[in-house]
Design brief:
- The complex is a heterodimer of chains A (about 425) and B (about 475).
- Chain A contains 10 helices and 20 strands.
- Chain A is about 25% helix and about 40% strand.
- With about 425 residues, chain A is an alpha+beta fold.
- In chain A, helix 1 crosses helix 2.
- Chain B is of the alpha+beta class and about 475 residues long.
- Chain B folds into 2 domains: about 220 residues, PmbA/TldD superfamily (PmbA/TldD fold, 2-Layer Sandwich); about 250 residues, no CATH class.
- Chain B is built from 10 helices and 24 strands.
- In chain B, the strands form 4 sheets. In chain B, strands 8, 15, 16, 17, 18, 19, 20, 21 and 24 form a 9-stranded mixed sheet that branches. In chain B, strands 1, 2, 3, 4, 5, 6 and 7 form a 7-stranded mixed sheet that branches.
- In chain B, strand 5 and strand 6 form a beta hairpin.
- Classes of the chains: A alpha+beta (about 425), B alpha+beta (about 475).
- Chains A and B meet through strand 1, strand 2, strand 3, helix 2 and helix 4 of A and strand 2, strand 3, helix 2, helix 3 and strand 7 of B.
């Protein structure tokens, strides 16, 4: 069914006082490889069709994955039945009305037209190169194209599409194990040879590992590592959770609770970032979350925004401006430290304190007197990310960490490592 | 269903060495009530079919949700083409499938009352009462009730001649009270994990009493002390805490695909490598772990896995020694096993099945021992209930766990409540430090319904279980 027919069908058959309808269609191709062989290879479309309806302040939801009349009728009937059986909702808000959406371009023809044969060719190339190094390579080559269409009874209509291409690989040679990943909306800028060179260089530098005890020490966090910490911090920045006393940001709006060198935005302007035009029937907009250490805004849903007279807004991507200090310069700014490629298995330890735990992964390098000396074992940290921003000594140039994050490498002092692994 | 034969005949005529089709309808009802506001009353139905083709040592998997002869044949063709494409890469490294016979069978989760037959209004009314009970306590700022009900209806056919009809379902209620006091906020959660049962389980629970207890404990917890600096201490772990610890430190390291490095790029690999089989001391002599996909009420008790292999029961750790892995038809052959343990499961129809943790549990102690006797036999330690923070490295060696409710033990008695407790340990230190396990009277299951793994990511479910157990000389302390 076309989107116009679906819209007409819902209008004609849904008897609720209010509704929000959305359909999301994703076409994917995923080639997974491990130990120099393809272990999984998946192709096919996925569809999600959701409807939220309300009678007065009673609401119900339903979801199906077939876009035909029979399925849509079942969708409407189930959502309406759920709403009729639901209690009055003291936090009910009606659906949004017509809105002007920002013009965004998140789709990529080079990604969409990538063929399965090309993707297998990329994988073959990586396996061949790994074999020449006497190594094994494991990873995933994938592409996705998603189209979303949403409308409400009160007049909101939104349409959006985005593409992503991803290629990640972990090389293992003896005890050395390291990973690089590339994820972007545009396949055209991907260079498999360059990515494998990066992987091989990373593996080479890790070949001499020495044991390292956990301690507080300066770290250079590369973009992938910083991005992972930032998403956890943003989850804690939820306006309602903070206002109700559950997070470290309670009562901190407009106060300096981050380091002065640290700013955080969501932006529609960066050409490499995916910026959806809307989320939850709200247009996305340029948003400053943190400006030079001051907490300026917090993500809030529509109910809480209405109750507390703030803007309803989403952290739809992350942009942290850098300053241009190189890694070589950073290594000279402190007597000794560690370079962290990425983190792994980050979890909340204490939501109110904002404390997280996690491990390093895929390569940790020890530097001293401005030079990399050797690799070290992986380490566990217990840290509070907003405190980490207060200990930033320098920022590099911002770089694409994922299609949803452009962040710099940062130098941080006294990063709190509390345990270590044997590898 | 006619599409089963159509797909399998088409795959065979194309030249597939093996193929299967899984037609799967997944129905979920998720209800979330927070502070008397119904945040979600969502019923979802995801329906479609996935077709796997094995050719020249490689898999191809294609999925679709359009039911027509033309669409099914096109999906078979796509899976076949992808398998052939994959085989060009695997020519020197071909996958093989462990032998398996054919089955014609059906399986249905035994339920007395199908939770989908209970009107939503009845469920929400009960949840509102639980919410009100918790909010009646001064200092409880947030009361949530999250109820998941899930049903999978599957038809499976393979070119081996297997024809299966499987209906499985589970329920998972989770109730949380969050207290705010003295500048802190702490939660306490009722969470036994999911169970493969019907609504009769919910009816058997006194949830109003549960609500009172967790509200009171949240208030105790928010005002409790922490423990200060980390020291080597004794831990007594409750089954609803130990479930997650065994999941991460025994379940995942003994998945054969991780052992083989098939998850190297994402979920990680395993320290428990094949040369350690039958000789590696994973735990003390009283530590016995069983994989059991026949467990009553077990979330992974599905009759058969998505390879068409029947549910089985076997020792993964026997008398403390690494005994065997959880395997699938394709992983088993990589270490020369002539059979699969039936651990291949997919989440939705559009997921290619992967090697999963079976129902996995710690056998109870063989000598009579009550939790009270265990505590009274402990001079100085910490007793942990419920799941909290958890993090483990990608080889499954080093880990740190929190919990949900903590008591300090002094001189054989529960001395004072604590909060913000963490313990750090590693394999094989942790399971070798286990010196006592309560007997079978105190064995309890703990279901995990959201085990994330794989690329693309899938969420699986399985049941763990244990009796309360004691661990000596573990690093335990307060968080920052």
């Amino acid at each position: 069914m076309t989107k116009e027919r679906i819209q007409k069908f819902i209008r004609e058959h849904c008897s609720a006082d209010d509704y929000t309808f959305s359909i999301s269609e994703t076409d994917s191709h995923q080639t997974r490889f491990a130990q120099n062989a393809i272990t999984q290879h998946i192709a096919g479309p996925q569809v999600r069709i959701s409807l939220k309806v309300s009678f007065g302040t009673k609401s119900g939801n339903s979801m199906v994955n077939l876009a035909n009349e029979e399925s849509l009728l079942r969708l409407i009937q189930t959502a309406e039945e759920n709403a009729r059986l639901a209690p009055e909702d003291p936090e009910f808000v009606p659906s949004t009305g017509a809105a002007v959406l920002p013009k965004v371009d998140n789709s990529s023809e080079s990604t969409n037209s990538l063929s399965p044969k090309q993707m297998v060719g990329i994988v073959q190339n990586c396996i061949d190169r790994a074999k020449t190094l006497g190594a094994t390579v494991s990873g995933m080559c994938e592409k996705h194209h998603t189209h979303k269409f949403e409308f409400t009874k009160n007049g909101f209509v939104g349409e959006d599409a985005h593409s992503t291409f991803g290629h990640s690989m972990t090389l293992k040679r003896g005890e050395v194990e390291t990973k690089v990943s590339y994820e972007a909306k545009d396949f055209a800028s991907f260079d498999v040879a360059k990515e494998f060179d990066r992987l091989a260089a990373q593996a080479e530098v890790l070949s001499h590992m020495q044991s390292f005890e956990p301690q507080k020490i300066a770290v250079i966090l590369r973009p992938n590592a910083l991005e992972e910490l930032m998403w956890f911090m943003i989850w804690m920045m939820n306006r309602r959770e903070s206002d109700e006393g559950f997070t470290p940001f309670t009562g901190m709006l407009d106060k300096e609770c981050f380091g002065k060198k640290f700013s955080l935005y969501s932006t529609l302007q960066h050409p490499d970032l995916i910026a959806p035009a809307f989320k939850a029937s709200l247009p996305n907009k340029e948003t400053t979350w943190v400006e030079r250490g001051i907490l300026k805004n917090m993500p809030a849903d529509r109910y809480w925004a209405q109750k507390t007279a703030c803007d309803a807004q989403n952290a739809y991507n992350i942009y942290i401006p850098g300053e241009g200090t190189s890694e070589a310069e950073m290594m000279k700014m402190v007597p000794r430290g560690l370079i962290i490629n990425r983190f792994w298995y980050i979890r909340f330890v204490d939501m109110k304190a904002g404390e997280l735990t996690g491990m390093t992964r895929d390569g940790v390098l020890y530097f001293e007197n401005g030079e990399v000396k050797h690799a070290v074992n992986n380490l566990r940290f217990n840290e509070i990310p907003q405190d980490v921003t207060r200990r930033i000594l320098a920022l590099g140039k911002e770089a694409l960490a994922s299609p949803y994050a452009v962040v710099p490498t940062i130098l941080v002092e006294d990063f709190n490592f509390v345990d270590k692994t044997s590898f | 269903m006619k599409y089963l034969d159509l797909a399998m005949n088409a795959a065979a005529s194309l030249g597939a060495e093996y193929a299967d089709i899984r037609i799967q309808r997944t129905t979920d009802q998720v209800i979330l009530l927070r502070n008397l506001s119904l945040k979600s009353a969502n019923t979802s139905v995801i329906d479609g079919y996935g077709i796997r083709v094995f050719k020249n040592g490689a898999w191809g998997f294609a999925h679709n949700n359009v039911y027509s002869e033309e669409a099914v044949l096109a999906t078979v063709q796509k899976a076949f083409e992808i398998a052939e494409l994959s085989a060009t890469v695997n020519k020197d490294n071909k996958l093989r499938l462990a032998p398996e016979r054919s089955y014609i069978a059906s399986y249905k989760t035994p339920v007395q009352i199908d939770s989908f037959d209970i009107p939503l209004s009845q469920k929400v009314e009960m949840m509102m009462e639980v919410n009100r009970t918790m909010l009646a306590y001064e200092g409880i700022r947030q009361a949530t009730f999250y109820l998941i009900q899930h049903k999978d209806e599957k038809l499976f056919a393979s070119t081996l001649g297997t024809r299966l009809e499987i209906t499985s379902q589970f329920i998972d209620p989770m109730i949380t009270a969050t207290a705010v006091a003295d500048g802190d906020s702490q939660s306490r959660t009722f969470d036994e994990g999911g169970k493969a049962v019907g609504w009769e389980w919910i009816e058997s629970l006194d949830l109003i009493q549960v609500a009172k207890q967790i509200a009171q404990e949240a208030l105790i917890k928010v005002k409790a002390d922490s423990l200060g600096a980390e020291q080597r201490r004794t831990l007594i772990l409750d089954p609803n805490h130990l479930g997650l610890t065994m999941h991460e430190s025994v379940g995942h390291p003994t998945e054969l695909d991780r052992v083989l490095g098939w998850e190297a790029d994402y979920a990680g690999i395993s320290f428990a490598t094949p040369e350690k089989l039958k000789n590696y001391r994973y735990g003390s002599e009283i530590v016995n772990f069983v994989g059991d996909n026949t467990l009553s009420e077990g979330l992974a008790s599905l009759g058969f896995d998505d390879d068409g292999v029947p549910g089985q029961k076997w020792h993964i750790i026997k008398d403390g020694i690494l005994n065997e892995y959880g395997s699938t038809r394709d992983t088993a052959m990589e270490i020369g096993l002539g059979y699969s343990r039936g651990c291949n499961r997919a989440t939705y129809y559009f997921d290619q099945p992967i090697n999963r943790i079976p129902n996995l549990y710690l056998l109870p102690g063989t000598k009579p021992l009550t939790p009270g006797e265990l505590i009274s036999d402990t001079e100085d330690g910490v007793y942990i209930q419920g799941r909290g923070s958890f993090s483990i490295d990608q080889h499954r060696v080093n880990f740190q766990f929190g919990g949900d409710f903590f008591w300090e033990i002094k001189n054989g008695k529960l001395h004072r409540p604590l909060k913000k407790i963490l313990y750090k340990s590693c394999n094989p230190e942790f399971w070798n430090s286990c010196d006592a396990i309560c007997d079978e009277r105190f064995w309890r299951p703990f279901g995990v319904v959201n085990c994330g793994k794989g690329q693309p990511s899938q969420s699986a479910r399985m049941t763990h279980g244990s009796a309360p157990a004691r661990f000596r000389n573990i690093r335990v302390g307060g968080s920052q």
